[in-house]
Amino acid sequence: MSQAIHAILFDLDGVITDTAEYHYRAWQELADAEGIPFDRSANEKLRGVSRRESLRLLLNGRTITPEQEEAWLARKNRRYQELLQQLTPADLLPGVAALLDEIRQAGLKTAIVSASHNTPTVLDRLQIADRFDVVIAGPEANAGPGRNRPKPAPDLFLLAAERLGVAPWACLVVEDAESGVEGARQAGMVTVGLGPTERVGAADLVLPNLAGVTLAQLLYAATWSVAEPGFDPAQQRRWESALTIGNGMLGTRGSLEERFPGDQPSTLIHGLWDDAPIVYTELANAFDWTAFDLWSDGEAFRMDRGAVTLYSRRLDLHSGELRRHLYWTTPTGATVQISFRRIASLADPHGVGVRLEVTPLDRPVQVRVRARIDGVVENEGLLHWRNLQQGYDGAIVYLCGETRRTHKTLVEAMTVRQEGVTAPAHYHDAPYNPAFEMTQTLAVHQSWAVEKLVAIVTDRNVDDPLAMARAKAAELGKGGYAALFTSAKAALAEFWAESDVIIEGDDAAQRGVRHGLYQLRIAAAQDERVSIAAKSLSGFGYRGHAFWDTETFILPFFTFTQPALARNLLMYRWHTIEGARKKARENGYAGAQYPWESAETGEEVTPRWVPGPNGEELIRIWCGDIELHITADIAYAIVQYWRMTGDDEFMAGAGAQIILETARFWESRAEPDRPTPGRYSISDVIGPDEYHEHVDNNAFTNAMAAWHLRTAGEVLAWLHTYAPTRAAHLEKMLDLSRERLVRWRTIADNLVFLRDSRTGLIEQFEGFFQRKEVDWPAFANRTKSMQALLGIEGANEHQVLKQPDVLLLFALLPQHFSDADLRVNWDYYSPRTDHTYGSSLGPAVHAWLACRLGMPEEAYTHFMRAALVDIEDVRGNAAEGIHAASAGGVWQALVFGFAGLHWTEAGEVAVKPQLPSHWRRLAFNVQVRGKRHAFDLRREDAVKS
Amino acid sequence: MSQAIHAILFDLDGVITDTAEYHYRAWQELADAEGIPFDRSANEKLRGVSRRESLRLLLNGRTITPEQEEAWLARKNRRYQELLQQLTPADLLPGVAALLDEIRQAGLKTAIVSASHNTPTVLDRLQIADRFDVVIAGPEANAGPGRNRPKPAPDLFLLAAERLGVAPWACLVVEDAESGVEGARQAGMVTVGLGPTERVGAADLVLPNLAGVTLAQLLYAATWSVAEPGFDPAQQRRWESALTIGNGMLGTRGSLEERFPGDQPSTLIHGLWDDAPIVYTELANAFDWTAFDLWSDGEAFRMDRGAVTLYSRRLDLHSGELRRHLYWTTPTGATVQISFRRIASLADPHGVGVRLEVTPLDRPVQVRVRARIDGVVENEGLLHWRNLQQGYDGAIVYLCGETRRTHKTLVEAMTVRQEGVTAPAHYHDAPYNPAFEMTQTLAVHQSWAVEKLVAIVTDRNVDDPLAMARAKAAELGKGGYAALFTSAKAALAEFWAESDVIIEGDDAAQRGVRHGLYQLRIAAAQDERVSIAAKSLSGFGYRGHAFWDTETFILPFFTFTQPALARNLLMYRWHTIEGARKKARENGYAGAQYPWESAETGEEVTPRWVPGPNGEELIRIWCGDIELHITADIAYAIVQYWRMTGDDEFMAGAGAQIILETARFWESRAEPDRPTPGRYSISDVIGPDEYHEHVDNNAFTNAMAAWHLRTAGEVLAWLHTYAPTRAAHLEKMLDLSRERLVRWRTIADNLVFLRDSRTGLIEQFEGFFQRKEVDWPAFANRTKSMQALLGIEGANEHQVLKQPDVLLLFALLPQHFSDADLRVNWDYYSPRTDHTYGSSLGPAVHAWLACRLGMPEEAYTHFMRAALVDIEDVRGNAAEGIHAASAGGVWQALVFGFAGLHWTEAGEVAVKPQLPSHWRRLAFNVQVRGKRHAFDLRREDAVKS
Q1: Which residues in chain B are contacts of A275 at CB distance < 8 A?
Q2: ipTM of the complex
Q3: pTM of the predicted structure, to 2 decimals
Q4: Which of the residues in chain A have pLDDT under 50?
């Protein structure tokens, strides 16, 4: 795995041994002798600080002569070294010896990274000098620029990594000091902080000390972030997707602030639709709020200019912050340390921030910085903005624009703050690119931070978005980046408290799961009029359109852990039902038929034709015409939400009406079967397996339609009890006569469903078993989908599935089928499915069902295809955006599959775990009817069950 | 007509009477009395200059006291007024009295615009005071800003126009002074200069004096420019097209320098292709070199901000300069005079310039100016540029970029020059928008001119376009705008000397013809690898693709007047023949089949599908598949060029080979007719009338194919004589056996051609006469094409033509048909043709043939539809670009139609004029085999013939 840790770097004082106590005693003796007030609490400030700086802190403003200073430092150190002689191996802190043994066993490298020149003595006395591959004992004068500063600079950590021959992102640092944690973070390393959260809370993982701590526990710190493993120009697009941040209103891809050739910066905002050729409508890429230019002695910074000698980028899943740290040597040879941090907070849909910090490492440098709002943004070459207007009011610059065809207004307003030094911020009124520009000459090791705080407002939010954006920018300027960061971290902490899933024993899986859940959360809006797109807000794939992905794959996660967000997503279908009515009407059917792809209005926006691979021929896309099952999938999601939450008010309102109106569609769509009177067919459809078009009586479609028609009757019956007036109103409005309800039941009971009653095998559609078989071994080493290899017609003629179709029924309607049936159908369909390059919706479902069949190891193979799809770019298409449905499927595979969440006969929620053998723990919460159920499954339990 | 002149404004001195002589005598007496050297030649400088300024010039550096100055001025004026008393009506200059009578008769308004306060006295003495609607006798102190400055300011002319109630662009000024001509031009008026060209050469028309001059002669001055009649935001797109300027390498639409909402700035450069969806390839809109921003006291200038109280824009066809003059009052109330001039020179494909001049009119103003190269350019929302890089080297700023898919490089480099005052020019490095910025505080009436000179170079021109662009920009900076202007005017003068067509008696027609010829000329490159697109380089319509429009409609103009350019255009087909071979091969035919739409390679680039009017349905475009006749049209143009020029070298090289290779296509395409052995058919085609698709044996296609096959044999025979080795080589390479040549002849003689031998009526294609008739009266007031009204299928089912099809044969192959046949077919087809909203190619052909039929008045109706198609936006689609083929057709209608150019039996070129009754003169040149034939047809001749 590209994210694995290969080396552990330990601080010495307070981590390996308690030399901190000896330091304290030596300082205390000096202070007492000189009559300076000092105590243990004052000593806290000296943790991780150099000797000379410690003396300064101890003096607390008193002045002494340089000669005195040298003498006092020597006295303190002499005393400290005397005390050190008392050290023995028994002074190793609890847990250290065992941990070092375990690390050596595991083959990871180790280093000591200490500020103290006494380190060799200490290690000798402790008799552990041979346990470390590298020992850094304080700054080394000749280590060179970027390698010779004390903590909190990253230098000593980078020096250690260099000597270990391990990349910074593969290092984990154990520290007890705030400055050490900060230095390690700036080095791009994973951090474990020992001690109270007030001190080391910025670390990825906080432990009280190392007593009883295992290597696995340390490494688990790395599951809270996703690191880009080195800078590879060819991989930028896929990392842009994976490193997307957001706040529920917008998503911003992880493109570089200063740009890079071939990049694809994008900020997609919920509801900001504009018309586009072929795809009808798409989310207009919003002005790039991340744009930040930097010149060092006049040389423009870019990753492909000069030389980058440190590079680390990491998305922190605790805070949603994306951090980049690097050392850049300009073409003329000056080296500067540059860090970019960006943040979007779930608590603040309208505020985002970028923080740039620059430090010259080897010579004074004139630094120029330009913080821009870039209005020259595009959707893969298409422009959506017009009437761009910009301005500056003394403190804030802003850019307004209007979508070309839908005339929606977007405003971004920016203010800047500085730290370290402060340069005048000049307005730079470049066309389409209003900016602040600042110039500063920095001494060696002098740091300058520029924070860019941007308010983003559309006319969906308020009548006067410009006024709101300016007010908001002013407010952001007061709190600065730190306030945004704190708010973001707090909001995510609340989310994780409810929605995290803990996996122990499999850090790659844990990281993948958390990354997916983070991506889902930031895509979900506090807004009933938008849904979650197939690629969330993280890329241009599928143009921001919503599919059944939302209801069938993503929604359960929200329904079970964030029901308020689930309700918003279902209300989106209610607000767009007029589009569904129109589609039914235009197709000659009754009721409401939901579109295969949905955007602002609920009208069908599936492209009818798309250019083929050679760019010339057009391919007809039939999904918008005949992929019908989404209408039942939405009804299913409503009922699931209702049953889990008990939200009767929703059900009596929007929920029941959607179910009943869409049931009328199925009634009108089902065709009385001519050869077999009394039977009903649904012909000419596409099922979930889209390799097969224009098929008759697709098992999934028919079973879901039958479920829908039956459930509609049950919902109406419930409504009569719960809200009789509403029931009567709907009956009248939708013409729900007794005869009609009987007809629904009749159709449901008589819809063709091709199950062999002898074997239990279900035929995916009429004639599927007559299609040709694929010579699978011939395709063993493929890197493309079976459809790409066989052609559209070729795949259609074969028994090859893009994704589970019959099998999905066993996941959604388990009560309808026996486990024996599942086994029979699994054995038939799973080997005929394009698991690797078919639909990304498939693997999670296979994982879930493999657990049902008691095959957790096989489940695991499928599961990891889904859990790593974006971080490891398993399918090679992460560049187009996050696989949101896969992330939702991963949650279902964990909870319904590996944990086996189900309802007992008594209606109680229960689990039946089936964990892969290397998983030690699986823990999560679900909310059922407002009650929170926490499940904490340990390996032992799993074995037991 | 929107361009008509409604008022004539006369200067007094030197125009109406010779008061100039009295001024001279008064000054001379003063000079003699004071002992100052002065004579008639020194007096020349005083022409049109105020009294006080005249004294200054007379003093020539001497100083006198203010008291002396006042006394001398009074003395001179007293003496002058005494002299004036000698004036009588006999002092009216020759021709003036008759001209004033004629103007009054014609109902036009008149004014005197004189610098002299003595004007009323003069008019009284001349007894013509009552002949003028308005008299301006020098600046009036209380006339207000922009109305009170002496010439060369436009003020007095604008004051007169205001008092006459006539818009400036409808005024014509007669002046004898340079300053008067300049003032009138700045007022946006048409100018007639009296006197030597050195003095009044900037005028639209120069006459020695008014002796014998008619109103018509004066008004003719207005045929040398096209004026935008007032600023109408809704009409901007169409004026952008009509006011396109260019230099044979590039065309730049007349969008406003400072931009306007909804505008479409574009600079299209020959050969700068980039791929695009649906249309395969299009000319990538180049960086906007016109971009110029202006702030007055911090207020950004735009036409929709503040108030514009003068607006005039005019494209000068003498120089190709586009001028805009305006008065702008800022939102805070300061008024400035602004003029923009832009130029591209036919003598300089890489240099262009814009000149901005600003003058505060009522208060001092701080003016900021920004001259940009705008890289944020688009093709109707599509972006073509990437890797934009910009820089500044102390004197020049530049922008480089690369097309996204074809990787062609474009560089634009800019320098600036100033006049009046000079402010430091700062580099403004806005992203994608490198600029120079200058700020200057101007006193009232102080003028500041900023010239922006831009070099435009692509990697089609040189290996290192950046180096060349920088060198070129430096060179442009030396000569400045004036040098570019002079070069442009000189180059166009050469063009007009060869290619102008003079029409007297119809200024609207004259202007339309000149505008069209100018547009054709600037579209023709000194480059064999490009053609002329359907919309030239003036708009995005048809994406820069070349059609048969070039060979059939445009080429004759060049063949007959600019044969070197014609040769380039034909060589384009030679260089792209590989694409034609590929098309034939892929369609299963032999030889070469030219594409219906052609771009860089000659491969077919007709879009196969285009979005329908509602944006959802796709419409299949069949022209690229089955509109075949273009292959014969190209052969026809080659033969016409060869016969007219005698360019045997071309014919023996590219010409013959194209004709022979394409003949092989026709041979393989013709189908032996099964029911009638011995006959040949060409089925499933589209003829010129594109309302009918998939037709069999289209008369035009078959006749042109037969002509082509016959001519190919003749060409080969000629080649055997002229270049036997070449002939043998081609015979071998193309397998031109004797049998094959016989077969060509057989096919040519036996291709189906549905002519009724009894009536001479030709059926457009098989079954045309069975199609339904249109109820024409029902469509009398339509504003859309018949196809738009009937639908694609509907039009196909009716006998309605988009454009001449059978009739075009009579134009191209007159020797094949009798006049009686023409009459029969005209009577049948003309009433069934969509003249108004069908193809814009049609009217000129109908004009031409109507002349052949002796119907010049009917011809004229058709002719004007073509001649005014862009200036008057006759078809409502001028916004998409110039109708280049229509302009070419206009020339053919004039020369082949109205003039009746033809060859006598003896092979001599001759005319047979048929002029509309109100035309007094039609004059033009043609070159035949290197010899220039000048034709000057007068009404009298026309009547005689």
Answers
A1: 615
A2: 0.86
A3: 0.91
A4: 942-945
